[in-house]
Amino acid sequence: MRVLILSHMYPNKANPVNGIFIHEQACALMQVGCEVKVVAPLPLVPPGIDLVSEKWKKYKQTPKKEIMNGVEIYRPSYFVVPGNHLLEYSGWTYYRGVRQTVERIYRLWPFDIMHAHVALPDGYATMLLKRNYDKPTVLSIHGQDMHYTVHRSPKARNKVIEALDSANVVIAVSDKLKKEIIECTQKANVVTVPNGFNVDDVYEDQSPLKDKYEGKIVILSVGNLVVTKGHEFMLHALKDIVKEFENIVYLIVGQGSYKSALVELVSKLGLGPYVEFLGALPHKKAMEYMSACDIFVLPSWQEGFGVAYLEAMAHGKPVIGCKGQGIEDFVTDGVNGILVKGKDSDSLREAVLSLIRDKDYAASIGNKAKQYVMNNLTWANNASRMIEIYNKLLNKSAAIKEGDR
Predict the structure, then answer these.
(1) Which end of the chain is more exposed for a tag (fewer CB within 10 A), N or C?
(2) Are 128 and 95 in contact (CB under 8 A)?
């Protein structure tokens, strides 16, 4: 079976961890026998902008074709207005940018299925490509379409709905997202298939970080520094936690537009000695920090799934997330993790303190977390489920064509 993946969210020179989960799924699919190629378009670099912007310079330096872990990746360019302006037209410009590349691929490698990640722009462009190739299409929704794009403008919302309705199968990475998609359009055929984690990414070595933070209780967050990740609520909780446990260090991995506000809040709360901003780290380094932490906290109140929770659980760490989010699909409160109220520092404080005060309780949660994700939520589990969906689509497509004869 030949699967063509389309995703603008794919690791590249400008952002090597961007959409890493999509690449890991592609690798897992290849391991179970799929042939996979990826079309991962990048923004068209305007003349001269690469001279003043490091990010755009790296876009320009990214190879147009490369092989990553055996996955063949094509990177045509498409017109993008910075700042997501005119987002409602991005599916069309994406289609215009990739169609010749897709045509060249198809001539030499006639794919069986197109699998897009994100409704706008990828899913909408795939809907347009579908007119040229009589192939089943799959569309994976990871969160941003439902949490951001549909609220951007009425036109953007309509484009998302068109993409959802056009796909033969829509994959929601959590039941929460599935519910949101169905509320947006009841025409889409939606199934839940959770993301996974790469077992090989679990950091097994003896890290020097253990020595660096010896005697400290290490709390870790990994995620983009944006308002919805809830870092500020953890900081407010930390102000009270350090009154009882002064040997705390709160490590924040990630970069984003909210960093300056968080840095200011740390100063305002007098938490300077207890908080370290580590910035965006290579994935392997982030996994090393997960291996060294005692508690993983990400109080995001707008989380479609949250691979970072899985990765922390795979390291045997107790995780804390918010109720009503995608994490509820794989965390049972008080058993293999802790779920707290969203935007609530008090419940966060009590959850963290419960783990610090009772080490046996924390260890039990961490052990059960590791056992659960290892048995149920690896990329191998995900790939097996995707193969079932692909085969069902191909069998249905073949039956329809046979009936038309």
Answers:
(1) C
(2) yes
pLDDT one-digit tens code per residue, 80-124: 887 778 899 999 999 999 999 999 999 999 999 999 999 999 999
Give the domain extent around 234. Answer: 199-376
Q: Percent of the chain beyond pLDDT 90?
A: 85
pTM of the full structure:
0.89
Question: What CATH number has the domain bearing residue 238?
Answer: 3.40.50.2000
Within this chain, do residues 210 and 244 fall inside the same structural domain, yes or no? yes
Q: Are the CB atoms for 13 and 61 separated by under 8 Å?
A: yes
Distance CA 314, CA 312 (A): 5
Provide the token pair at 361.
């309780």
SS3 category, 46: coil
How, if at all, do strands 35-39 and 2-6 pair? parallel
Residue 139 DSSP label: E
What H or E segment, with its residue span, contains residue 54? helix 54-61
Quote the radius of gyration of the chain (alpha carbons, Å): 22
